[in-house]
């Protein structure tokens, strides 16, 4: 099967009556854009993969820009499945921009690597002063229903977070079955959340409440970044625990960031 090159380009703008719209929207290959939905506050856009998943040698390129005063919620319709690969790596490159007074939330489904999957991902997120971001990433240990626990070949995931022209976080995760992080459970599900907002400066107790979510099946840690950014990392014993924690954290932060009060139409 020939590799595919998927390209996605979205530009969200604030136009008539303070309404956010997609001023530019194009998708090809492994991307399909659903009809946007304006709930009166945030524009919801769902992205789907019309193919069976990500195959050997596939290339994904994603460009998303949120202009001044625009508000965008971006999410996939289903998990991203990385299929088995004999020799060549699949790659994904995402570039995200949030201009002053803009809002971007990216809320994913699980990244599920199947046996012998090889995947490289690079995300670069740039936020202007006054811009706000809520960006989550999630990872499963494999296709457990098929007995594929940590059976992938290699994952190389990197996210760079840039605020006001300066890098405030550069997160890199390299995983292979022979070099996995320690975990209190036989299998684990992983998530990272990046948050940027000047509003959170006065609400330090949020992080204490988030870390208090840790339990026998969940580990949560928060770190304050330079300027107005925060990072949250989680390990969970199963997918339902991870999903519940993601929704709980989102609800806690929504007390300060009202755009998170949006109820995604797929839930």
Model description:
The protein is mainly beta and 267 residues long. It is 9% helix and 48% strand. It has one domain. Strands 3, 4, 5, 7, 10, 13, 18, 19 and 20 form a 9-stranded mixed beta sheet that branches. A 7-stranded mixed beta sheet has the order 2-1-6-9-12-16-17, with no helix packed on it. The longest helix is centred in the last third of the chain and has 16 residues, at 239-254.
What is the topology?
Blueprint: E1 5-14, E2 20-28, E3 32-33, E4 37-38, E5 43-48, E6 59-66, E7 71-76, E8 80-82, E9 90-98, E10 103-106, E11 111-113, E12 118-127, E13 132-139, E14 142-143, E15 148-149, E16 154-163, E17 166-175, E18 189-196, H1 205-211, E19 218-224, E20 229-236, H2 239-254
Parallel strand pairs: 1-6, 5-7, 6-9, 7-10, 8-11, 9-12, 10-13, 12-16
Antiparallel strand pairs: 1-2, 3-5, 4-5, 13-18, 14-15, 16-17, 18-20, 19-20
Could you name the ranges where pLDDT drops below 50 across 5 or more consecutive residues?
none
Rg measurement, Å: 18 Å
Work out the strand percent: over 45%
Largest beta-sheet details: 9 strands, mixed
Mean pLDDT: 91
The class by helix and strand makeup works out as mainly beta
One letter per element, helices H and strands E, the order comes to EEEEEEEEEEEEEEEEEEHEEH
Please tally the helical runs, counting DSSP H or I stretches of 4 or more residues. 2
Inertia-based shape: globular
Distance between the termini: 34 Å
Total domain modules: 1
Number of distinct beta strands: 20
State the helical fraction: under 10%
């Amino acid at each position: 099967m020939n590799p595919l090159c998927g390209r996605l380009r979205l530009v969200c703008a604030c136009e008539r009556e303070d309404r956010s719209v997609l001023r530019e929207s194009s998708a090809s290959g492994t991307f399909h854009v659903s009809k946007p939905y304006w709930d009166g506050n945030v524009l919801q856009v769902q992205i789907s993969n019309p193919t069976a998943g990500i195959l050997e040698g596939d290339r994904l390129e994603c460009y998303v820009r949120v202009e001044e005063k625009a508000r965008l919620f971006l999410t996939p319709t289903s998990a991203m499945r990385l299929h088995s690969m004999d020799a060549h790596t699949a790659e994904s490159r995402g570039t995200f921009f949030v201009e002053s007074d803009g809002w971007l939330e990216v809320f994913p489904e699980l990244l599920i690597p199947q046996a012998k999957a090889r995947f490289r991902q690079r995300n670069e997120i740039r936020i202007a002063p006054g811009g706000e971001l809520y960006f989550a990433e999630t990872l499963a240990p494999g296709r457990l229903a098929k007995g594929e626990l940590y059976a992938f070949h290699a994952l190389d995931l990197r996210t760079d977070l840039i605020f006001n022209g300066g890098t405030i976080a550069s997160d890199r995760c390299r995983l292979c079955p022979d070099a996995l992080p320690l975990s209190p459970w036989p299998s684990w599900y992983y998530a990272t959340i990046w948050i940027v907002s000047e509003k959170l400066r006065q609400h330090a107790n949020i992080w204490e409440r988030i870390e208090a979510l840790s339990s026998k099946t969940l580990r949560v840690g928060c770190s304050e970044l330079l300027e107005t950014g925060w990072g949250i990392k989680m390990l969970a014993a199963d997918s339902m625990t991870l999903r519940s924690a993601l929704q709980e954290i989102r609800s806690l932060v929504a007390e300060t960031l009202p755009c998170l009060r949006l109820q995604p139409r797929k839930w």
